[in-house]
Design a protein that fits this description.
- This protein is α/β, with parallel strands linked by helices.
- The chain is 38% helix and 17% strand.
- The chain is built from 13 helices and twelve strands.
- The strands form two sheets. Strands 3, 6, 7, 8, 9, 10, 11 and 12 form an eight-stranded mixed beta sheet that branches.
- Helix 6 links the parallel strand 6 and strand 7.
- It binds S-adenosylmethionine (SAM).
- The site of S-adenosylmethionine (SAM) has 22 residues, from helix 3 and strand 6.
């Protein structure tokens, strides 16, 4: 059955009901909570990307986290979305809306690669901190497609440098194998296993990417995991740093309304982020976006553009895919990427 937000068997946010039973767990779920979880959209304002709830069993565990911290991060993701890929390696299960994000990211990479290789003159670097395993399974279609790192290296005019990192050792191993199988005319750094916000990962990227590079940093976390301190770290060291960010605005609103400020605080760079939206504001999302932009402006970011990624059936907003840059060119490229349909053809804005 195709994934539908109306279905409690859909496998993304809406597949909570029944999961405990399927796994043989005896969780007592109160009727009110059960109703809510089984509601048409599950919980559209969940803290997490709805892709994060999987139905299929994990593929064979084939890697061990090297530190207790990484084990925690890896387990978080392992318990959610990894399924067996078409090549038997782990793949990330996603819903249709993730394709919208994937297409924009790929076209953005393609346009920057073509537009800036000659125009910029220096090194051109693509870095992903939440890289995933390199393959997506589109649950709604039952098909497989390359993950964002593979898409990024396969563009017609590749960047000169690529760095990918992920906290889950199984994603690291699978992505490395898939990259090894992909012919790329560029320097592809060995995939880094580590927390995107850790000094170890930051230092490895500094070592791999020359400071004069035009660096596109793509951060596609599944939860509130991309800390503002990480943005600061790179923004202070790379003058030409463009940020392509999955910003889970509804997730923030939901978390803050529920009194969970901890993770949001680190991402939004605010000691008490509930203050940003106030107790009753009807424009909580707008306030959050404004706040986040203001934080970036402090780092001399002046150009912003974003696209709201929506759940397909009900068109409920799930997260923003945003670009932030010190150069106007990046937002122009992003708008060009938005104009391309899924088939890669540019749509003419006739009206
Ligand atoms: C949404 S997926 C990325 C999907 C990828 N953009 C794609 O399209 O193929 C997020 C990834 O972040 C990883 N992750 C979660 N927390 C992390 C952290 N703190 N640091 C690095 N990676 C993390 C997960 O293991 C997961 O593979």
């Amino acid at each position: 059955m195709p994934c539908s937000a109306n279905s409690s068997r859909g496998g993304c946010e809406c597949q909570w009901e029944g999961t405990a039973e399927r796994r043989g767990l005896t969780l007592a779920i109160p009727p009110a909570v059960r109703r809510k979880l089984a509601s048409p959209m599950g919980d559209p304002y969940s803290l997490f990307d709805p892709d994060d709830y999987r139905r299929e069993p994990d593929p064979e565990p084939d890697g061990e986290a090297t530190t207790p911290e990484l084990a925690v991060l890896a387990k978080l993701d392992r318990d959610k979305t990894l399924v067996k890929g078409s090549d038997e390696r782990p793949a990330r299960q996603v819903c249709l809306h993730s394709l919208d994000k994937a297409h924009i990211a790929r076209y953005y990479a393609d346009i920057v690669g073509k537009g800036m290789k000659r125009a910029y003159g220096g090194p051109l670097a693509w870095v992903e901190l939440f890289a995933g395993p390199g393959m997506l399974k589109v649950k709604d279609l039952g098909t497989f497609m390359p993950g964002s790192p593979i898409e990024a290296v396969k563009i017609d005019s590749p960047f000169t440098h690529y760095v990918f990192a992920d906290a889950d050792p199984r994603c690291v191993k699978a992505l490395q194998a898939r990259l090894d199988e992909t012919k790329v005319d560029a320097t592809v750094h060995p995939v880094i296993e580590g927390d995107a916000n850790s000094a170890a990962v930051h230092d490895a990227i500094l070592e791999a990417i020359p400071r004069n590079a035009l660096l596109v940093l793509y951060a596609d976390p599944a939860a509130l995991d991309f800390k503002f301190s990480t943005i600061e770290f790179f923004a202070e060291r790379y003058e030409h740093l463009d940020l392509l960010i999955n910003l889970p605005v509804p997730g923030f609103v939901r978390a803050l309304r529920a009194g969970h400020e901890g993770k949001a605080s680190g991402v939004l760079n605010h000691p008490a982020p509930a203050e940003i939206i106030g107790p009753t504001s009807g424009k909580a999302g707008t306030s959050l976006r404004d706040w986040f932009e203001r934080q970036l402006r402090v780092l001399r970011y002046e150009h912003f553009e974003s696209e709201v990624i929506r759940q397909h059936e009900k068109r409920v907003p799930l997260y923003d895919l945003m670009i932030a840059s010190r150069s106007e060119k990046a937002t122009k490229f992003f708008r060009e990427a938005l104009l391309r349909g899924r088939d890669g053809q540019t749509r003419l804005n006739l009206f």
